[in-house]
Structure formats: C-alpha cells, structure tokens
Amino acid sequence: MTVTLLGGSGLGPWAWQRVVPLLHSRGIRTRTPRLRPTASSLTDWIDDATDPGGTDVTLVAHSFAGYVAAGLLARDPARISTVVFLDAVLPQPGRSWFDVMGPDVEAYLTYAEPAIAEPLDPTRTRLVYIRCLRTTPPAAAVDGTGWTVHPLDAGHWPMVTRPEETARLIGECAGRP
C-alpha cells in the first residue's frame, strides 16, 4: 500500500517531512511528488503526479491539490482506492477553481488556465474529507453524502503544525491506524 501526498499551492514535498516518518512507522510507503511551481494548466500538475505509486493507493490532497486529486481520479480511478482531501478545495462540477476560490485567487494565478471540475463519485472511490477546524473561512463545504468526514483541531497546514494527528488520520484512512 502507498500513500501519495500532494501539497497545496506553493508547497513541495518538504511540507510532509514531519508526517512521512510517522506514516513509515505504521508500515505505510509514501510518495511526495513535486508539483511544478508554475504551470500553464491544471493538466500540467496532474501530469506531475500521474504515477500515484502502484495500486490500492490512498491519495492525500492538501488545499489546492484537491483539484489535482480529482483530475488523477478521473484519469486513473482503478489504482486509487481512497482520496483524502486535507482541508482541500473540492471540485464543483461545472465550476472552475477560479469560480470556487474567487477573484483574488484568479488575479494571483493568472498564468494558469481555469480548470473545470470533474465530478467526484463516492460509489467508485472512498472519499474522505479532513476539515481543519481553525481554517476560516472553511476551505470547502462537505454535505456528508457518500463522504467520511473527520474534524481536526488545526489550522490550514496541519502536516506542519499537527503532524502526529495528521499522520494518525491519514493512517486510519489508509487502513493502518
């Protein structure tokens, strides 16, 4: 089993350095692909993470990487058993990331084409949302239908500020508590 950890916008593999050893101590292999700092489209970031690390992969997506995870899931659903959205923006079918995040984010990321969301299907893949309770406003609203939702008493970067709790929840989601 492999857990692939995708950092949000501007974060690299370094963001997971406190969590990775804790997951390894649970017998979980990890991958931390680097999403290039600049890209011309969401497809570029999806390409950066295309090999999720085998079969029976648990994909963990933080913040903006929720869109990357949805794209990976649409591209190769058979290899991904669980997607954990860690205080992530959730794709909304028919709406771009810019539509969801608003004009300030769009102005900041004008180099990237807007990405239209792929619908998430909880009947094909286990979908988990870890909601960081100290993120204001919340990164996403999850209605709970078909989802497993876990609260985490942390801010938006729990892998840095609360690595033990983050690793525990990821391990539980991956079937290795």
Which descriptors would you attach to this protein?
single chain, 177 residues, alpha/beta, Rossmann fold, 6-stranded parallel beta sheet, 7 helices, 6 strands, globular, AB_hydrolase_fold, AB_hydrolase_1, Sec-Metab_Biosynth_Hydrolase, catalytic activity
Structure description:
By secondary structure, the chain is α/β, with parallel strands linked by helices. It has one domain (2-173): Alpha/Beta hydrolase fold, catalytic domain (Rossmann fold), CATH 3.40.50. The protein contains seven helices and six strands; from the N terminus they run E-H-E-H-E-H-E-H-H-E-E-H-H. The chain has helices at 20-24, 42-48, 65-75, 97-101, 103-108, 158-161, 163-173; strands spanning 2-6, 29-31, 57-62, 80-86, 126-132, 147-152. It has a six-stranded parallel beta sheet with strand order 2-1-3-4-5-6, with helices on both faces. Helix 3 (65-75) links the parallel strand 3 (57-62) and strand 4 (80-86). The longest helix is centred in the middle third of the chain and has 11 residues, at 65-75. The two termini are 13 Å apart.
The tally of beta strands, per DSSP, is: 6
Strand arrangement within the widest β-sheet reads: 2-1-3-4-5-6
Q: Give the overall shape.
A: globular
CATH topology group? Rossmann fold
Strand content: 15-25%
Number of spatially distinct domains = 1
Spans of at least 5 consecutive residues with low confidence: none
Q: CATH superfamily membership, which one?
A: Alpha/Beta hydrolase fold, catalytic domain
Largest sheet: 6 strands, parallel
Distance between the termini: 13 Å
Order of helices and strands: EHEHEHEHHEEHH
The radius of gyration is 15 Å
CATH architecture assignment: 3-Layer(aba) Sandwich
Arithmetic mean pLDDT? 83
**Fraction of residues in helices?**
25-40%
CATH class: Alpha Beta
